[in-house]
Amino acid sequence: MSNLHTHHDDHEHSEHQHSHIPQDRKILVLSFGIISLFMVVEFIGGYVFNSLALIADAGHMANDSLSLGLAIVALWLASRSPKISQWLAVLNGSSLLLIAIYIIWEAIERLQQTPQRMDALPMVAVATIGLIVNIIVARIMLKADHENLNVRSAYLHVMADLMGSVVAIISGLFAYFLEWQWVDAVASLLLSVIILRSGWQVTKGAIKALGQ
C-alpha cells in the first residue's frame, strides 16, 4: 500500500513539474534575453573602466546565460530524457563552483599586485544598471517552479550575480571617496564565498537526485 502511495506521490510530483514547463520556459527565455544583452554591456564597462568586480560580474552574467540556456534545454528534455535533465542540473551547479574559484584566483592575484586605479563613478553607474537588471530578472524568475533543480540553479546564478552588482557598487564608492583601490579585490573574494556556497548546495542536490 505504501509503495502504491509513493508511486502516486511521484506521479503527482511529475505532473506538477510538467504542468509548470510552458510557463517556466517563457520565464527562462525572457530572463536569458535580458541577461545576455546586459552581460555584453557590463563586460565592455569592466574592460574600459579597469574594474575586476565588473569583469567578474560580467563573467558571472555569462555563466547566468549558460545556466539559463541549460535550464531551457533541461525543461525541453524533462519528459523525453529525465536523466539527461538531471545531469544538466549537476553541470549547472558545478558551473557556480567554477566561477567562484575563478574569482578567488583573480582576486588573490590582484591583491598581490600594486593596486590599479579604476574609474570609480562610471563603474558604479554600470554596476547600478546591472543591479536593476538582476532585480528585474530575479522578480521574473520568482514565478518559475523552484522545485525544478535546473530552474533553482539558474535563479541562484541570478541572485549571486545580483550580489555581484552590489559588491561592484560598494567597491566603486570606496575607491571614489576613500581611494581604497583594494576593496574591489576583497569584495570580489567575499562574493566568491557566497557563490561557492550556492553552487555546492545545488550540485549536492542534483547529485542526490541522480542517485534516486
* Residue windows where pLDDT falls under 50 for at least 5 positions: 4-17
CATH architecture annotation: Up-down Bundle
- Write down the CATH class: Mainly Alpha
Instruction: Please provide the ordered H/E string of secondary-structure elements.
Output: HHHHHH
Instruction: Tell me the distance between the termini.
Output: 20 Å
Can you give the helix content as a percent range?
A: over 70%
Strand content: under 5%
Helix/strand/pairing category: mainly alpha
- The CATH topology, please? Alpha-lytic protease prodomain-like
Total beta strands? 0
Q: Which geometry do the CA atoms define? A: elongated
Q: How many domains, in number, for the residues?
A: 1
Main location: membrane
Region (Disordered): 1-20
Domain Cation efflux protein transmembrane: 28-210
Organism: Actinobacillus minor NM305
Short description:
With 212 residues, this protein is an all-alpha fold.
